[in-house]
Model the fold of this input.
Amino acid sequence: MWAAICDIWQGGKSIIIGHTVTFRNFWRPKITDRYPHSKPEENWQPKPGYRGGFAQLKSDKEDRELRCIACNLCAQACPVGCIHIEGEGKGKERHPVAFYIDMGLCVFCHQCVEACPVDALTMTEEYEISRTSRAGLIRDLDELVAAGEGRQEVSRVV
Amino acid sequence: MTDSTNDTGLIAAAGQDNSDIADNLREQFGEQIHNAEIEDDTLQVEVAAEIILVVCRHLSTEIERPYPYLSDAFGVDCGDHLQVVYHLIRSETADGAFVRVNLPRNEATLPTLTALYNTANWAEREIAEMFGVTFAGHPDPRHLLLPEGWQGYPLRKDYQRPDHPYLASEPLHEDPSVFLASGPQFETTEE
Amino acid sequence: MPDEPIRRLARKHRESPAGQLLIKIVDKVLNTGRACSVWPLGFGLACCAIEMMATAASRYDLDRFGMILRPSPRQADLMIVAGTVTMKMAPVLERLYHQMPEPKYVLAMGSCAVSGGRFYRDAYSVVNGVDRILPVDVYIPGCPPRPEGLIKGLLDIHDIIRRDSIADAPYIEGQRPEYRQYPRLEK
Amino acid sequence: MSETTQAPLTTEEIVVNLGPQHPSTHGVMHFVVTIDGETIRECVPHIGYLHSSLEKIAETLRYEQFITNTDRFDYLNGLGNELCYVQAVERLLGIEPPPRTVFIRTLMAELKRISSHLVYLGCYGNDIGAMTVFLHAFREREPLMDMFEAVTGGRLLYNYLRIGGLRNDLPTGFTDQLHRFLDYLPRRLEEMNDLLTSNRIFIARTRGIGILTARQALSFGVTGPTLRGCGVPYDLRKLRPYAAYDQVEFDVPSFPEGDCLARHLVRMEEMNQSMRIIRQLMEKMPEGEIQADVPRRIKPEAGEVYERVESPRGELGCYLLSDGGAKPYRMHWRGPSFYNLQALPVMVRGGLLADFIATLGSLDPIAPDIDR
Amino acid sequence: MASTLVKTILDVIHNWAEGLAQQWGIPHLFVSIAAWIAAFVFVIVLVLLMVLLAVYLERKVSGAIQSRLGPMRVGPIGLFQTPMDALKILTKEDIVPRDADKILHTAGPVIFFVTAVIGYVVIPWDRAAIAAQVVDLNIGVLFVIAVSSIGVLGIMAGGWGSNNKYALLGAMRAVAQMVSYEVALLLAIVCVVMQTGSLSLAGITADQGGSLLQWNLLRWWMWPALLLYIIASIGESKRIPFDIPEAESELVAGYHTEYSGMKFGFFFLGEYAHLFIIAVTGAILFLGGWHSPLPATMADPIPGFIWLMGKALAVILIMMWIRWTLPRLRVDQLMNFAWKGLVPLGFVAIAVTGLAIGLGLAGGGG
Done:
């Protein structure tokens, strides 16, 4: 009998303690990031080094040419084979004529960026990469170059 | 409550060594033990398929410091033959013993260890469907991971993936000349 | 469909100016209602399921958009295929899709659902893209996508819904135009 | 409704399929449960709905390329899986990683353990019916996610460890962030205990439910918190220390009851122990290089290695067989959930349908870890 | 004032209809029936609005407890979220599974929703003098409980008719649970009836008039009954910790697993209508009905039905607080708790009330 009363007392106490916890939380400030709404606040900007979309960087010299030398190392490093390169020219003249990254296949592992010998390919903090068609996920050279405008550095954690 | 048991286990492990187990095994089973040695306090035994049940029972119950539990079992396709590896452990010290059996590719049959270890049930079903090893006397010899009616043994080296519409690598782009994801650039990597 | 009489009427009068105005108004009301309360069927399969749960949790809060994850396909409007679809899972996925009431939408979340991703080339048991089984409306690449990326994809779904019109009748006469018919998995 | 009812009517057992798509199956598993009223007579698990042939894929990728895939086995323990795989490759190659690398790896693995247990806590709350716990656990997990993102550039899957090193060093400001988190988490865990663990209803739902004896657990190959909940202090971090675990002090919590509550308490206590380990690691963290000398082409000599680490779910094993090439000849992964789940039919037999969910949740299975 | 406004509108309609009837020679009976129907429709609309508000509040309160925002996008702070949900649900495809029992499958949600709403006809929204009650039954409180307990037939019909095992299990659980918790609920009501001496809801309200101290809430001998009522009403409305009929992690969505579109909407709205009527009844039984808590000497600018709804919302808020705090009980624990915990507590409550009446503290039947 006494045990039963103790049990009821303990049970009731634990339930009331639980209610105080939820009551406290009721008045705490909300932690929700209001993603598409408070966009200027940049609350949800990923940290530097975030592995998002891709970009091709241009040389920081006067001529502003692409750094990429179409050496295919990134395509070889890729564990899923989502990079396709067609290059032209020999030696120092070599440059890509076609460069496709299939974002739908990519696993965002950063191995291609690390493989690049001339720091031409980088990942960006872009994360709004959804499309309504499968073909729309394939990035070509123009899009990659456009994404790289104004960037000099390869993505890396600082 | 926890540290004391731990300590006793560790002291016991330090105080004894396993070198006699290999010798005993060789003595007891003779020719049918192909190989028995100790590498970094881990016992490595290679036995004939016929005596696998006897050896495992011996190792898990009859020796002085037994390996009573089966931790893991998996298959390996060694090219000309298949190998099934059993990983036995002691729960006090987490010492392991590997027991290996070599099997011919075409008629791979092993007695099941489910009578000895509960662990063997799923592990053997997985090996059976992945390598085509038949476990004689297994209580539940259905497919485990693959759908019913699957053809072929996927983890064998000569396995060809089926020609199925869900798997076909069709060109991803509208214009197939632009992008072929299953390109050959990958195979040429090492050369 | 409960709105079938309205649809028939709308298709009949889609030429007249008064009819057009009416269709516009009805579309606006209906599409707002539908877009504002998209209830997803959380089809969490692998890693992406955790990010989907994180998106539904406090920091990103799908409920802001009126989305509640429903456990039963009968009450869902949107199927979020979050993760790897295997050959063994494919018939289940197809069945669940057919259990959902019209109008319904499919969102492929993560590389595995978009294209097979990690398992595109060498895997023998993974469906290379859920669009081989279902008509996918929005693809979200990423492995897994950030919760913000998922929310962006969901907002794309809202846009698709808002472009629907009752005069188009896209889901009455057979399937949607972009539906690609793939052979069913043989038993 | 209860099993003691002796009805003169003829009753019929019904077969209920839980899964593959079911709100509580922790990924995709399928259980064919035969119930009599609400009492479970038999439970047959069907797995393989996430069998993604990763072991086959490993044979087609170079050693360094496969690191990113190890995350996908048990996605809640990405860094722990990488640690296991990378240690296996390093043992094949005979490489010793620099001490700072070892410390950072251990630190990240322990952070991942906390994160994994938080997901467990949330999902278990959801299984038991306490939705708020689910959201609170995910709320506490978000600062962790931010830290992982700052260090590795990804929220859930990382590809952070490299053979003989790391992708990058810890970023600036990480230490402050970590200390803030370590100050804040114990209070919130205390709150979570108030809300869930000490709740009378929760205890009624979990005490004496899904009992597994130590002998049964061992014979089924059960490891991790599930085994420690049966009173066996089996923890590879203590028994066979790897990485930097031999340089820190910690306890291995274990409870002898073997029921759902014991497993829950083990996980709650493990989070505290992980925080203790992390504090010590931060104190002793050496300076220096993070990358050992590694040949450019990773081609281990022919040989094999079986590496074991303690994941949040149990003993994780990675078997690598090399034939001297740049790709593994054979890779086998011992997923702890695979063997833990095998014990489920024994644990749930004779219980109620609701107990099934509670028991399954307390095993904390992860589907890709089972199916690989 | 809103209540007088309501009365004026109803009166105007009534007079106009009567005039018309006299002109056309329609019997007076039809006019009265028409007036009842008009009043009923008015109440239904009001109730539906309150139900939508309750759904919205549920999402906001759960959001606040879980450190998130809840609906934000539709209307100011998401106020129009639930009407949008209703709109969408009503235009969704209505699927009847092939092997389902078509009649029962349709009957289930209809019975459930109608019984949830019918109970509202006996609720005294405001003082009887201004006719804000559709009918004043002298067994009103019994009527409310009796009618809302018919709702379980709808659940059973739906669960059985769906031809789905989850739905069947959920329906079986729901029946067992509702039957058990109704007993406890009635025992709590018996205490109030003993105190008041009237089964009419208007009578129970009248008994608590005068001042705040007359409320049953502040009569200590009613406290066991109050505790019993709170617990049993949560059980009756199938909410956490007693939500086993639709336990998400066990039975997917319980008895409405196979329902889509409008029928699911009926179940969904019916559930909240049930919740709301139990809250309103609770407010009448223990919180003084439409009476204002302000002293009688003060002028009261707020009409009675607002007070009643406010009190009902307060009860609902407490039930939400409980819902988002506790885990779920198991089915056998739930039944044990009902029969071994609540029913004895009910007898204690009756004994305490009887003792108080015997001592002359309570009204003892006026």
